[in-house]
Amino acid sequence: MMDILFLGTSAGLPTKARNVTATALLEAQGKGWYLIDCGEGTQHQLLHTSLSEHALRGIFITHVHGDHCYGLPGLLSSAGMKGRTEPLTIVAPRGIQAWIEAAIMHTQFFLPYELKFVAVEDFAGDTFGEFSVQTVSLSHRVPSYAYVFVSQHIEHKLQVEKLLAAGVPKGPLWGQLQSGHDVVYQGTSFCYTDFVTSHQRQFKAIICGDNDTPELLDEAGKDCDVLVHEATYTEEIGLLKAHYGHSYAAQVARFAESANIPNLLLTHISSRYQDDITHSPSIADILSEAQSVYSGHVSVVRDFERYRLDHSGVVTLVPADH
Amino acid sequence: MMDILFLGTSAGLPTKARNVTATALLEAQGKGWYLIDCGEGTQHQLLHTSLSEHALRGIFITHVHGDHCYGLPGLLSSAGMKGRTEPLTIVAPRGIQAWIEAAIMHTQFFLPYELKFVAVEDFAGDTFGEFSVQTVSLSHRVPSYAYVFVSQHIEHKLQVEKLLAAGVPKGPLWGQLQSGHDVVYQGTSFCYTDFVTSHQRQFKAIICGDNDTPELLDEAGKDCDVLVHEATYTEEIGLLKAHYGHSYAAQVARFAESANIPNLLLTHISSRYQDDITHSPSIADILSEAQSVYSGHVSVVRDFERYRLDHSGVVTLVPADH
């Protein structure tokens, strides 16, 4: 019902394996996608995916720190050079607008499309394509926000026993009824409303900026299907670095457990944690710390990993498209 | 006598194979280096080289276009996160200073070292480590500059016949004399000034910003050992795109030929020219067009290629360090 593709998963500094933060949220239908944060090099990461700047429907910036926004001027100007003409909305802290306007003024960059800035400080929620979007204020060294994306999907279910009892044979007719068309079989009309029940199901993903207090997501976490949250450190190091305003794995996982959130994707990993699990500390330490206090599905994500939230609310890793 | 390491060689847009513009100039001695232009992703490129942000001695920006400067905020803040405390001089158009100051103000980035901005518009030349640096005004859609780097090296040459006649045996004593030390052999003193002649040799590299009029380098081109210049297009396409303010290969090569510049390194290649020489157009077209009108050494450079200007004024490709 939505895909989340990680374009950058490193905290603060890029590494050879991980870029700084950027996350793509893809609509279930079509090619539309949304970008949450845009660290330097995000446009370069896009070159290795099937995402196009033309199908980008909106940008959401969680906070003003450079590792979450320094890719914006390049991505915006490259989209223009590639011929984008569609207006683009950016929900972001006010400082981002001021800084982009400084780029436009001082670096002579011409955009052949309209940028619509929405100050996240004033953002009361809005609809973007198939998503309704809300924010939650987090706690970090600067104001930081989570974006809550909710989509509604209507599931049409065939009443199989009723169809069999009525003598409608399994096959194309069933498909026509399920997709909302009446059918005629052997001279008899069958109305789809008699054989199909419709259920509305809500899907909720929360994608967070830097945050040292996961409990701030208590209210938004209700009915959340998947939480994307930073886990910059393991507990031992996180406690030493508390003044940086980040979370550690066990802290986020404990919150997700208490909030009954079934899927947890941990990102924004300090570069001290290497992908090589024979190195200490490694990202395996982040994962095992989270697993020790959390019973849901948890992954420590990597660049270019694409996760799918399916119609039953399950999150799985799907094949990368790069 | 100096190395030039290309960190980005694509015009306007990054590609999978080439980043946007950035060029490193390395001192002959030690680890000191200078950065000329800093497109987005330059700090990422550095991760694949032996260059460190700590040994960066100065930054020179040729013009305000984003593909030459959008890597600055990230590189500067990452250098701070990695512990740089040494002040850093940036010679750049005034707009760059205004934009970086906007980044510092609006994105809360704290630098633990001093940035010293020098407006290139007022720059009358200065010395940076072993280089004296001058500028040349170029012609582009916005004010654009070439940076002229000159280093002086003193070559100490042994007078071999005189040494043999004096009976000083070949070996360590010759080395001591050559490095400016007097020696004693079998009770006799030998003064190095009697056996060593010293010649001062000047080395000049010109690294240019975007430019549609190579002839502006006429004066600076005298005694130039190596010219690094854009060749965004081949002639056919360049003539169609003249309003963009770029040069094409034959145009630059004709100038280098007329100015007797022995080494020409062409960069800032439009992404339409692919590295795959079976593709049309390819970078091979840029190279052959330049070679057709130029008798010196010419290369169309690639990311991470490192060229050495040696003591005899010859430029060669040296093994990459990534």
The gist of it:
Chains A, B: Its cofactor is Zn(2+). Chains A, B: Homodimer. 2 copies of one chain form a homodimer. The first copy, chain A, is an alpha/beta fold and 322 residues long.
Explain what you see.
Chain A has 322 residues and is of the alpha/beta class. Chain A folds into 2 domains: 2-154 and 200-231 and 263-271 and 300-318, Metallo-beta-lactamase, Chain A (4-Layer Sandwich), CATH 3.60.15.10; 160-194, no CATH class. Helix content of chain A is 21%, strand content 31%. The first copy, chain A, has 8 helices and 17 strands. Chain A has helices at 42-46, 72-81, 94-106, 160-166, 172-178, 235-240, 249-258, 283-291; strands at 2-8, 22-27, 33-38, 56-60, 88-92, 115-119, 126-128, 131-137, 145-158, 183-185, 188-190, 196-208, 226-230, 263-267, 297-300, 306-309, 315-318. In chain A, the strands form 3 sheets. An 8-stranded mixed β-sheet of chain A has the order 6-5-4-3-2-1-16-17. In chain A, strands 7-8-9-12-13-14-15 form a 7-stranded mixed β-sheet. A two-stranded antiparallel sheet of chain A has the order 10-11. In chain A, strand 16 (306-309) and strand 17 (315-318) form a beta hairpin. In chain A, helix 7 (249-258) packs parallel to helix 8. The longest helix of chain A has 13 residues, at 94-106. The first copy, chain A, is globular and about 75 Å long. The two termini of chain A are 21 Å apart. The model of chain A has no long low-confidence stretch (mean pLDDT 95).
